[in-house]
Amino acid sequence: MNFIDKPGKLRGFEKNIKVEKVSRRSILKGLGVTGGFVLAAPVMTRQAFAYETGAGKMPHGVVVDPRVFVAVAPDGTVTILAHRSEMGTGVRTSLPLIVAEEMEADWSKVRVQQAHGDEVKFGNQDTDGSRSTRHYLIPMRQIGASARTMLEQAAAKRWNVPATEVKAVNHEVVHSASGRKLGFGELAADAAKESVPSIEGLKLKDPKDFRYLGKGQVSIVDLHDITTGKARYGADVRLPGMKYAVIARPPVTGGKLTSFDPDAALKVSGVEKVMKVQGWPWPSKFQPLGGVAVIARNTGAAIKGRDALKLVWDDGANGRYNSVAYRKDLEEASRKPGLVVRREGDADAALKTADKVVTGEYYLPHLAHVSMEPPVAVADVKGDKAEIWAPVQSPGGTREDVAKTLGIPEANVTVNVTLLGGGFGRKSKCDFALEAALLSKELGAPVKVQWTREDDLHHDFLHTVSVERIEAGLDKDGKVIAWRHRSVAPTIASTFAAGANHAAAFELGMGLVDMPFEIANISCENPEAAAFTRIGWFRSVSNIPRAFAVQSMVGEIANATGRDQKETLLALIGSPRIVKPNVKDLWNYGEPYDSYPIDTARLRKVVELVAEKGEWGRQVPKGHGLGIAVHRSFVSYIATIVEVAVDDKGKLSVPRVDTAIDCGTYVNPERIASQIEGAAIMGLSLAKYGAVTFKDGKVQQKNFDDFQVVRMDEAPLVTNVHIVPPAPDTPPSGVGEPGVPPFAPALMNAIFAATGKRIRALPIGKQLEA
Amino acid sequence: MIKVKINGQEQSWDGDPDLPLLWFLRDEAGLTGTKFGCGQALCGACTVIVDKEAVRSCITSINDVAGREVTTIEGLHPDGDHPVQKAWRQVNVPQCGFCQAGQIMQAAALLMENPKPSHDQIREAMAGNICRCGCYQRIENAVHLASTGV
């Protein structure tokens, strides 16, 4: 905890972070100097808590030091650092709220300040994988408890009474025996001198005394600024003398510039300069693609200038990428044996002797993130120092990559994290910040690189494209005795290493080898697939195609056996148990399996809860249908029921969605609801429209007219969210991503119930119109 | 020289008359509350009110609004307490928040034209504004709340 004695003025974009009276500089001053208690190690011990998480194994682990995260000013204002990126999940509110809860701070006197990218100082900052709450619930509680203890110790000394006699209550420390009270502000200077208590000795609050956690009564800290236009996103950063740039990039991944003619562009009013941008060969992780930048006095002029450029490209080897042909390749690969990644019993033999085999081949095309804020970054590079302002999910990674790209020490790079206008995994890749850094270095001036929507669609790190083929063998009684699932898709690893043709462990663990059904003979296979474009994380990642396939197959089995979907699903899940897949080094979202096992009791519970609350089996009007799906991802359990209505022209609408989520111990149920409501929209978008396609290596879609997403007039009329109350000591689990995967299969099962049509290839497009 | 009144203040521009109003607002006038989402009037993130009409500033040139009154999110209400803004906060509409200025301006324009829209009318009027986070249910409820008294 820091004591701030000289309130100062903030600089630049940081004005938006509502710390008007607190100097960021003075907060930071104390950190490096007094940081002797930085614990870059796992801190969740079995003695203190009933579970462990994988937080300590993330790069740079966890830092639990109140002096890093908390500052108290003499007027009582408590400043809490948010070290994870805010992209709409509410994490910039939720994590500081945990600190405030445990520290007994009054939330109305708390100011949240965004941390810059520095993982040595703050611990891991990669805001992805639906990890923030599950990795930081306990550390943030410990930070808050440490700060509270220091304030209590300071008060006890002031009154010369034992520390056990004083207690922090709502922004004051109270000595009830004498009725004395001191506000946090009055104690701040003394508390800062107290030593930081040991983690092991900390007393955490009894959850029954929580004022904020689990209640859902606190709105996000940026709410007022968002509704008044004051919230600052990446694009809103303005620096004196800043230039505006847009870049023409190679239309084919791995392509190169052959020649260009800048003359017409330079004649455009407002254009100041045209320059080449360094590119890296493909694949090279997040390094820029290269191309030609147009520098102007405003973005509009830069775009107009770019339109006037004459460019000749060499498309290179990926110019042969065609989505129609590639789909056939994937389908063919799925029909032949592939690398076996899970085997129990003998699925091949059991399929041969099965009474009936139900086969489904499910196709899901590339998807683009299209966050409403296209990629954008501001850089100011002076000599061997660089300052970046950008909406990045990975501030620490961005800092590393900027340093490497410019060839300067990491310590010379400052990454300021703005609000993210959506992320969905796209902004885990910092290529746009690297472009800005390169341009600023060459220009010798601050520069903003703005991607247009067309740039965003043409140069995304796309969600993969996949064929999932499942064959389920049934015995005479309709019981599933064999399950063979072949998953074929270019891997994210191909963006890091040339020639990566098989799924990485983390991709296999997302709905393929962690399949929870109780079936005697299981074979999960991963045939090869080559990549021809940049593949990246998209919200929920491989869980989307896997849940689509597996849960559609449940609907197909229900149909083949004439049974109810929900009963079929529960029969497949089988007995309440801990699933132990026969998989070498099963990837479990980076979490220890003991804390986060695949627990079919919890899986069954969300199915039963959604069935009850969502009135499974209710009578629906003609042309309507109900579908159900369940999926465990990011170590949470989620079940969804979709009611669909399909009219006689094949136009579909969604009158009602119900989702039950078991995400363990939670912080803010109101934000959980918003994430799940949004996941239904994203699920419906990808089901109805989601497809990025390639012709001759080039993305064919340009903007929201040909890469459509759901709009309000087609959104579900109602999405009900039902949260499973956690049992004591249940570890927290993911919320941001798990809502998406079950939506599409629940919708497909509902469409089948409504129309008898089984859709196995997404998007739905015009398939219902036939 | 093009003159335009923005949030009650007269501003002038002697550059390219075809410059989209969006970029004039954001880069020249420093009013960054209005957002760039698509540049083709497909997403509504750049919505402002010109006189009394919701307009997509990304395809409206500065010349098109010469002599007219432009209201951006910054000028909707001096304290940010327009009924639509208050309703947005009561309903906790935003997730990432990036599209919300455009959504709010569209909703404010809708209520000027139709103070008591039905749910269907709200859904239709707001269909030009994309929210990738998927806040639609709350947007609909907030517009309804704003129309019935916050």
Q: First CA to last CA of chain A: what distance?
A: 65 Å
For the record, give the distance between the C-alpha atoms at the N and C termini of chain B, rounded to a whole number.
42 Å
The secondary-structure element order of chain B is EEHEEEHHHH
**Model regions low in confidence, pLDDT < 50 over at least 5 residues of chain B:** none
The backbone outline of chain B, from C-alpha atoms, is: globular
Summarize the main sheet of chain B: 5 strands, mixed
The shape of chain A, in one word, is: globular
- Radius of gyration of chain A from CA coordinates: 27 Å
How much of the sequence lies in strands of chain A comes to: 15-25%
* Low-confidence residue ranges of chain A: 4-47
Alpha-beta classification of chain B: alpha+beta
- The tally of strands of chain A reads 29
Helix content of chain A: 25-40%
Helical content of chain B stands at: 25-40%
Largest interface (CB within 8 Å) is between:
A-B, 69 and 61 residues
Helix count of chain B equals: 5
Strand residue content of chain B: 5-15%
Overall pLDDT metric of chain A: 93
Q: What Rg of chain B do the Cα atoms give? A: 15 Å
Please characterize this protein's 3D structure.
The complex is a heterodimer of chains A (770) and B (150). With 770 residues, chain A is of the alpha+beta class. Chain A is built from 20 helices and 29 strands. Helices cover 28% and strands 21% of the residues of chain A. In chain A, helix 16 (543-561) packs across helix 17 (565-573) and helix 16 packs parallel to helix 20 (743-755). Chain A is globular, with a radius of gyration of 27 Å. The N and C termini of chain A lie far apart (65 Å). Chain B is α+β, with helices and mostly antiparallel strands and 150 residues long. Helices cover 34% and strands 14% of the residues of chain B. Chain B has helices at 21-28, 83-91, 100-113, 119-125, 136-148; strands at 2-6, 9-13, 47-50, 53-56, 69-71. Chain B has a five-stranded mixed β-sheet with strand order 2-1-5-3-4, covered by helices on one side. In chain B, helix 2 (83-91) crosses helix 5. The interface between A and B is large, with 69 and 61 residues.
